[in-house]
Amino acid sequence: MIITEQTIALLDQTESLADLIEASESFQTYIATKQARAQSEEARLVEREFLRMKEDYEYVQRFGKHHPDHDRIKKEMHLVKRRLDVQPEVAAFKKAERSLDKLLGEVSELLAFSVSPKIKVPTGNPFFDEGGCSGGGSCGGGSCGCTI
Prior knowledge:
By secondary structure, this protein is an all-alpha fold. The chain has 6 helices and no strands. The chain has helices at 5-23, 25-39, 41-63, 70-86, 88-115, 133-136. The protein is elongated, with a radius of gyration of 21 Å.
């Protein structure tokens, strides 16, 4: 890649955008909740229990309903997952993570669509994206039902 003054200016603007994102409330909340989750003994215990149960669950899933402990482990897995999801520090972290992800998706869309409205932008989970084709781009009439 040949470095030009235009490339250097673009890289400088990119660094400025990254600085603005790092200064945003979404990013600051994400960092704070990440640290709180890491420091929470209760969160670490539930996460360890979840990981142990996940190993058991994956093992049982290899055999499906034919494994004698399938139903019991499946039920226990759901209970542990629920405990993990409602654990306060984990729940706050997941909420902050979604907020930051939304911000980054919006920035990505603005950048892409400022170049061309036909650029597809991966925004994460297609089930929660607004509009078709990864958040508003147009794919040309594929299986998602978007049109040009």
